[in-house]
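Example for tutorial group B:
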C-alpha cells in the first residue's frame, strides 16, 4: 500500500481541464488519451470479431484459454469508451484467470441513448448462448457504465427468460441515474474525476429524456435482484458514485443474493485501471480474478461432471 502511489494517481487525474461542458468529440478524445496511458499486461492476444451484430474484441491468453468466457462491458458513461480503452482491465482479468474475454462495442449516446446499450449487450449474451455456450461458463464484468451494464444486462436477460450467468463483477459501477446517493455530496471535491455537474452532462445524453426512476437506469435503488448470480462490487472510497455500490449490495443482500462489497480506501473511480502503477489496483484485480475463477470453475466443473 503506497501513499505516494495514491497521491500520484490523484494528481494525474486532477490535471486542469477546459472550463464548462465539453463536446462529445472532446470527451471521447480525452478519454482515449487517458486510457492509452494504462498498462496492458503481457501474455494476452487480441482479435477483432463480432458478437450479437456488433463489433467486439476477443482477448485471450497467448497459450490458449481455460474453459469459460468473461463478457466484459467497457466504461465511459454510455457516451465514450470502447473495448480498446478498457483493455488494461480486460487484459488483466484474462491474464489473471486464464479465461477468454469478449468485449462488445455497444452503441453510445447521444447518437444512441437508453436503452440502446442494454439492447446490444443483451444481444451479445444471447449470441453466446445461441453459439452453444453454457450460461454456467459465462460471467459478466464491467467498469463504470459497463459495471452498470453488467447488472442491467442480467436484469434484461431475466426479463427475456434467458438463463443467467454464473457471476457478475463490477468495478466502480454506475447504478443510479437519480444521483441520490449520499456520496454524491459527501465525496464532492474528494473525487478527482467526477462532479455532480459532469455526471449530469453525460447522463442527460444517455437518458435521452427518459425518467431516471427506472430499474434499468437506477438499479441501485429500484431493481428487484431476486435470483441474481453471485455479485462482486468493487469501488474506491473517494468516489462520488460509491453509494451506487453500497446500495446495490444492500438490495442484493435483502434479495438473498450472495454479494461481496469490496471498498478500497483513498482510491478513485475505476482505480483497477492503474494496475502496475498502484498496488491497490493489482490487489483488487487479484481478488476479482479469484472470485471469477471460483465461480466459473465450480460451475463448469459441476456441468462437466454431470
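The residue assignment follows.
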Amino acid at each position: 500500500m503506497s501513499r505516494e502511489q495514491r497521491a500520484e494517481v490523484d494528481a494525474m487525474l486532477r490535471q486542469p481541464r477546459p472550463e464548462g461542458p465539453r463536446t462529445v468529440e472532446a470527451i471521447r478524445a480525452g478519454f482515449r488519451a487517458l486510457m492509452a496511458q494504462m498498462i496492458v499486461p503481457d501474455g494476452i492476444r487480441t482479435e477483432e470479431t463480432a458478437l450479437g451484430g456488433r463489433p467486439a474484441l476477443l482477448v485471450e491468453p497467448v497459450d490458449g484459454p481455460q474453459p469459460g468466457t468473461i463478457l466484459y462491458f467497457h466504461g465511459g458513461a454510455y457516451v465514450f469508451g470502447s473495448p480498446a480503452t478498457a483493455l488494461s482491465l480486460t487484459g488483466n482479468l484474462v491474464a489473471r484467470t486464464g479465461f477468454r474475454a469478449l468485449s462488445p462495442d455497444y452503441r453510445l449516446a447521444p447518437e444512441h441513448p437508453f436503452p440502446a446499450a442494454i439492447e446490444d449487450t443483451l444481444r451479445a449474451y444471447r449470441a453466446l448462448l445461441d453459439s452453444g455456450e453454457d450460461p454456467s461458463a459465462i460471467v459478466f464484468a464491467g467498469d463504470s457504465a459497463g459495471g452498470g451494464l453488467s447488472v442491467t444486462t442480467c436484469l434484461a436477460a431475466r426479463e427475456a427468460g434467458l438463463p443467467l450467468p454464473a457471476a457478475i463483477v463490477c468495478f466502480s459501477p454506475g447504478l443510479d441515474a437519480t444521483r441520490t446517493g449520499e456520496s454524491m455530496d459527501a465525496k464532492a471535491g474528494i473525487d478527482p474525476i467526477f462532479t455532480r455537474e459532469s455526471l449530469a452532462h453525460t447522463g442527460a445524453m444517455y437518458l435521452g429524456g427518459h425518467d431516471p426512476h427506472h430499474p434499468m437506469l437506477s438499479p441501485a435503488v429500484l431493481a428487484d435482484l431476486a435470483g441474481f448470480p453471485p455479485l462482486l462490487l468493487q469501488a474506491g472510497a473517494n468516489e462520488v458514485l460509491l453509494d451506487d455500490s453500497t446500495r446495490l449490495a444492500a438490495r442484493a443482500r435483502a434479495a438473498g443474493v450472495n454479494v461481496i462489497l469490496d471498498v478500497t480506501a483513498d482510491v478513485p473511480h475505476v482505480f483497477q485501471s492503474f494496475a502496475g502503477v498502484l498496488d491497490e489496483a493489482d490487489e483488487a484485480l487479484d481478488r476479482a480474478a479469484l472470485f471469477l475463477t471460483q465461480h466459473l470453475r465450480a460451475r463448469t466443473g459441476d456441468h462437466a461432471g454431470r
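Residues 3-305 form a domain with the Rossmann fold fold (CATH 3.40.50.1820). Compare this with the pattern of hydrophobic and polar residues in the output above.
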